[in-house]
Amino acid sequence: MTALITLENVSKRFDRRDGSSVAAVDAVSLEVRTGEVLAVIGYSGAGKSTLVRLLNALEKPTSGSVLVGGQDLTKLSEGELRAARSKIGMIFQQFNLFRSRTVAGNVAYPLKVAGVGKAERDRRTAELLDFVGLLDRAHSYPEQLSGGQKQRVGIARALATNPPLLLADEATSALDPETTTEVLSLLRRVNAELGVTIVVITHEMDAVRQIADRVAVMEDGRLVEIGDVYDVFSDPRTAAAQRFVRSATHDRPSADTLARLRHQHPGRIVSVRITDEPGLQQRIDTAFRTTGTTAELVYGGVSEIRERRTGSLTYELTGNVDAALEALRADGVHADEED
Asked: Which residues form the ABC transporter domain (predicted)?
């Protein structure tokens, strides 16, 4: 699969009043494949928002190159940048709709700026409003819409000029969970039915689980982990990714929960990673049985990512626990004793 976006050793530094500088994005190299949905996650200050501004050339990198559709945005003139940005759709956390324009007027606006004739503008606007399920609200104003409806207008407007790339910057952060699911489902349709490549900037791991093909994890301006969304959920390699995964899956006991479990269960507390490997549960049970280890399930959570099972089960183990852990690990089963 070819890359629609290529970042090559990109850094963005901002000057401070004391004469020093801080790296908001620090030596990031990344490819976004044509036709995929890539989620970029990180806590506040990780560099996500700066990264998205580099992708649409609203910020120029201090060093490195940003290629979108084969064009190095760092080398374009302002006129060339305007043309390049017309091929990049944007949706925002706060919707950024024109309050004085109707729903149809908001969607038609980029087409009018691009010089598209009225007949074609009307046709395309109706087509997009039908796609997002708001054709019956074409003459409404933004103040008459719910948050979810406003974001659907934002998506329709972003798609008006048929961009191959859509950037979604915290697009569901202002929405309730049910509406978030609806908007993410719509973005999945945009990707699947229209073939639009989507980069989702978010701090919400649930959003990643619902929509992304791959996920990139940022921390302190650096790209610390990237991989298939299932792989990152089932086997996060870095501390940052582990924190995000646990915040979404809740499959490992928190410190408070672990203290309660220790009070109730005097044995050793061990968590076993659950994946979609065939016969995994049978192998776990066999390791306990053949080593004479008694296991009681005390905590856990298993969910599906892209129709594949992942999660963790936490047991109280008594008996020959060390032998059981050795047997599990020898059989390729990931097991950790909780500290």
From this structure: 5-245
- Two structure tokens written together for 312: 């963790």
Same domain, 222 and 286: no
Regarding whether 310 and 183 lie in a shared domain, the answer is no
**How many structural domains is the chain composed of?**
2
Q: Are 50 and 131 found together in one domain? A: yes
Distance (Å, whole) CA 271 – CA 255? 14
Residues 116 and 177 in one domain: yes
Model's pTM, two decimal places? Answer: 0.88
**Contact between 325 and 335 (Cβ < 8 Å):** yes
**Per the structure block, which two tokens stand in for 42?**
């990180």
DSSP state of 67: E
Same-domain status, 261 and 313: yes
**CATH number, domain with residue 155:** 3.40.50.300
3-state secondary structure of 278: coil
